[in-house]
Amino acid sequence: MCGITGWVAYRHDLTTERDAVAAMTETMVCRGPDAGGTWFARHAALGHRRLSVIDIDGGAQPMAATRDGEVEAVITYSGEAYNFKELRAELIRRGHEFSTSSDTEVVLRSYLEWGAGLVDRLNGMYAFAVWDLRSEELLLVRDRLGIKPLYYYPTADGVLFGSEPKAILANPLAEAVVDAEGLAESMSFVKTPELAILKGVHEVRPGGMVRVSRSGLSKSRYWQLEAREHTDDLDTTISTVRELLDDIVARQLISDVPLCTLLSGGLDSSALTALAARSLDEPVRSFSVNFAGYTENFQADEFRGSPDAPFVTDVAEHVAADHTDIVLDNADLLDDGARKAVLRARDLPISMGDMDISLYLLFQEIRKRSTVALSGESADEVFGGYAWFHNEKAVNAPTFPWLAMHFTGERPDLLRDGVADKLDLGGYVRQRYAEAIAEAPKLPGESGKEARMREISYLHLTRFVNSLLDRKDRMSMAVGLEVRVPFCDHRLVEYVFNAPWAMKTFDGREKSLLRAATADVLPKSVVERVKSPYPSTQDTGYDAALHERVGTLLHAGTSRAFELVDPAKARRLLDRGSSAVARRQLELILTLDGWLGDYDVRVEL
After folding, report:
1. At what angle do helices 490-497 and 448-459 cross, to 10 degrees?
2. In this predicted model, what pLDDT tens digit does every residue of 305-326 receive, in sequence order?
3. 14 and 160: one domain?
4. Annotated catalytic residue, options 2, 30, 260, 488
């Protein structure tokens, strides 16, 4: 995986802006610690930081393609094309010659052969930019599910772009400004496609392309979920899911560097670990995260019915994995350096608190032994794993189902009255929900529960999962670890999206199709385990430390967080003691304090 950035300016000579482009590229070192490079033309400059995974000795970027000694196109590319070997063979048959074994060159030459139509042929996770010297046009492309990030910032005569906002903000043309819409987005627990929170900054939509030319900027979508009739019976559907998973995992195990899996003991990660173990010629390497005293003192709550550790052990022993358990304590979770690193990785005022920090620390430890990891992200969205998929009240609520069960109404209670009025989080969520539902595809005549569950699935695959993919990308790339997400393969997503809801719950449980498709490779304990989310520390000492830190901010009275947060409401929050809601609100105050101050953000309400 890598970090990409660049600048297009049609009324400016960018060969004079080497320092600015170098600064933009330097912000991506965490994503690409192995090598870096820049490329310049009069009206375009591209930057790249490389994490070497495929063709370690070759594949340097930005990469240029020439004909008769003339450069035709240059690419800066982040990601993996899992079908690059097939594409390479086809391109060779069509007369192309290759000088490397990298998938980057395959993507670049695919562009020369098929233009923007290359996207229809790619299977993988990717974000890339191609500068075509023949037309002096820039093409920005993002993978179908949005696994890899790509931001852009239109300017008066072109565009700035980067894998993360920090690359754009390193350019003197960009300012860190947030308005009411951006703040509402960051606090609403929704993920609106294209909206990037910072004013003027946009995301390339998953499955989308952005073209930049002298005539301006245009956007298009090359992929989106479609409603199709599912004609397979249950047995065929289960076997097709397994066939797809076998192929997907085998493709995503290709790597020239050490590889591992993330193992939580849940169905998703356990299935990937087991399938990987069957495909590898050596024991699969796996990692999990735990907290000191967590298993011994575990208390079930509405989210988690059991600790992960016993199930992790069962899977590791079942598949003979080379397993490592990373154990963290409060000192780790509260470490100022780790918290600053997480904020720097996020770039934005979005935080899952200790769950972000523990994930970052887990990845930091994994990176000492592996460069690539397989993760079970998105299986819940694809197969219907979350509790609210199966809660009638949440399903029928006129809002995002995860908000119907959790979170609703928390954060306006913390904000200053004037700020809360301007953000109007309730109205913002209603607007975004209406937009999402209007997009959701349906089969002709589809109605009732089947139609509603298709809508629920669509909301998760186009909104909810993007928040989790973004988090996984930021925390992993902050330490130079590439995380692959097999359940995001668009073939699997399309197939399961169109399977009837009755099939997805045929055994009366969540993720019925996935369980049936992988039960033969899993220990019985995991097959029967109820869904449990990523762990969060239950140590009350962690909450006490959050209270103390917010109390310190209140006493000092200089934190910029209180431009938005009402100090009196924050004091009342401290008086109420510990709870899940209080923890989230305290984390919000600390996140705003760091973000507004460290990034010198200007608030425009």
Report:
1. 160
2. 788 899 999 999 999 999 999 9
3. yes
4. 2
Q: Is 353 annotated as a binding residue?
A: no
> Is 262 assigned to a binding site?
yes
Q: Could you tell me the maximum CA-CA distance found in the chain, to the nearest angstrom?
A: 74
Number of domains in the chain: 3
Residue 195 marked in a binding site: no
Two tokens at 203? 């995301």
Question: What are 523-563's pLDDT values in tens digits?
Answer: 999 999 988 888 888 888 999 999 999 999 999 999 999 99
If asked whether residues 274 and 321 sit together in one domain, one would say yes
Which helix or strand (DSSP H or E) is residue 276 part of? helix 267-279
Residue 266: which of 366, 377, 381 has the closest Cα? 377
Q: Would you say residue 436 lies in a domain?
A: no
> Is 480 in contact with 497 (CB distance < 8 Å)?
no
Beta bridge partners of 289: 326
**The CA-based dihedral angle spanning residues 422, 427, 433, 436, taken in that order and rounded to the nearest 10 degrees:** -50
Whole-angstrom Cα Rg for the chain: 24
Establish whether 376 is an annotated binding residue. yes
487, 508, 528: which is the final residue of a domain? 528
Q: Which residue has the tokens 């620390």?
A: 361
Residue-number span of the structural domain to which 553 is assigned: 540-603
pLDDT at 368: 96
Domain boundary at 177, 192, 221, which? Answer: 221
pLDDT at 408 over 80: no
Query: Residues 186, 284: one domain?
Result: no
Q: Are 481 and 371 in contact (CB under 8 A)?
A: yes
What distance in Å separates the CA atoms of residue 181 and residue 423, rounded to the nearest whole number? 7
Catalytic (active site) residue 488: no
Residue 289 to residue 456: CA distance in whole angstroms: 30
